[in-house]
């Protein structure tokens, strides 16, 4: 049975405080097309919490890793076809995939200002399209047409349905973070999927423990008011799983849970 989950797109407001968790919630950081790492993480979660374990993916299913299409399908099918107790928030890389196929936008203006596009090797758009069978030898002029023929509508629809955040069990699960001091109902998509400046340095109290990814670190890190689970799977480092239960946080390793503590 699913837990009481608050899913939202911009403009939603909640007037009831989220209950504290009574069963573990598992969260997986940015996967970036690493299917084998994902399967290992799912096996560990099932071993720790059983087949009905509550799991939230923190977005960025695609880009950089070579099996992005398979990762999206694995997560989509688990949620939409198999009825798993899973959910997934929107990541900026997932958004860029959908935007390119639907509108031809090759990355948002914030990237263009840095002379980057979604197709740049640092972002990994070409690798994602290759995972759908769009060869890297396809010329730029034909790329959009090839992408529209290759990327299933079911994947675009799945990305379009992703909430920007999930408020559950005293935690707020979001891809990048939030704008401190802004009510949850007034947070904007650009911050929730892209924010770093004004967020990563914020050390003040928050209404929830914010669980996010987006900014790759060497290891998952508990900052006291937030937990960052992006440990750089897109760059070949391990994919991280967090476990949130009874106000405690663990990572899920090969030998089981390891306590993740905030700074002393």
Describe the structure.
- It is a single chain.
- By secondary structure, the protein is α/β, with parallel strands linked by helices.
- It has eight helices and twelve strands.
- β2, α1 (35-49) and β3 form a beta-alpha-beta unit.
- The chain starts with 5 loop residues before the first strand and ends in a 5-residue tail after the last strand.
- The relative contact order is 0.19.
In short:
With 264 residues, the chain is an alpha/beta fold. The chain has helices spanning 35-49, 68-80, 92-103, 109-112, 125-131, 140-150, 153-160, 189-194; strands at residues 6-8, 25-28, 54-57, 86-88, 165-168, 171-174, 209-212, 221-222, 226-228, 241-245, 248-253, 256-259. The strands form two sheets. A six-stranded mixed β-sheet has the order 1-5-6-7-9-8, with no helix packed on it.
Per-chain topology:
Layout: E1 6-8, E2 25-28, H1 35-49, E3 54-57, H2 68-80, E4 86-88, H3 92-103, H4 109-112, H5 125-131, H6 140-150, H7 153-160, E5 165-168, E6 171-174, H8 189-194, E7 209-212, E8 221-222, E9 226-228, E10 241-245, E11 248-253, E12 256-259
Parallel strand pairs: 2-3, 3-4, 6-7, 7-9
Antiparallel strand pairs: 1-5, 2-10, 5-6, 8-9, 10-11, 11-12
Keywords:
17% strand, alpha/beta, Purple Acid Phosphatase, chain A, domain 2, 264 residues, 29% helix, six-stranded mixed β-sheet, globular, 8 helices, single chain, disordered N terminus
């Amino acid at each position: 049975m699913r837990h009481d989950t608050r899913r939202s797109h911009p403009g939603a407001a909640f007037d009831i405080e989220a209950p504290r968790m009574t069963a573990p919630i598992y969260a997986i950081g940015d996967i970036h097309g690493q299917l084998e790492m994902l399967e290992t993480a799912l096996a560990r979660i099932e071993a720790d919490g059983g087949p009905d374990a509550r799991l939230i993916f923190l977005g960025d299913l695609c880009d950089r890793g070579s099996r992005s299409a398979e990762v999206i399908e694995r997560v989509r099918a688990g949620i939409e076809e198999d009825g798993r107790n899973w959910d997934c928030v929107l990541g900026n890389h997932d958004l860029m995939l959908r935007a390119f196929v639907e509108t031809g936008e090759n990355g948002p203006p914030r990237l263009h200002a840095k002379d980057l596009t979604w197709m740049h090797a640092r972002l990994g758009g070409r690798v994602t399209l290759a995972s759908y069978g769009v060869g890297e030898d396809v010329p730029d002029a034909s790329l959009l047409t090839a992408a529209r023929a290759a990327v299933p509508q079911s994947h675009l629809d799945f990305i379009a349905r992703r909430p920007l955040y999930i408020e559950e069990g005293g935690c707020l699960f979001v891809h990048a973070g939030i704008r401190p001091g802004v009510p949850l109902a007034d947070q904007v998509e650009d911050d929730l999927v892209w924010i770093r400046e004004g967020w990563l340095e914020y050390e003040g109290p928050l209404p929830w423990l914010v669980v996010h990814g987006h900014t790759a670190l060497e290891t998952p890190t508990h900052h006291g008011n937030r937990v960052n689970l992006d440990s750089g799977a897109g760059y070949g480092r391990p994919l991280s799983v967090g476990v949130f239960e009874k106000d405690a946080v663990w990572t899920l390793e090969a030998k089981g849970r390891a306590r993740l503590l905030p700074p002393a």
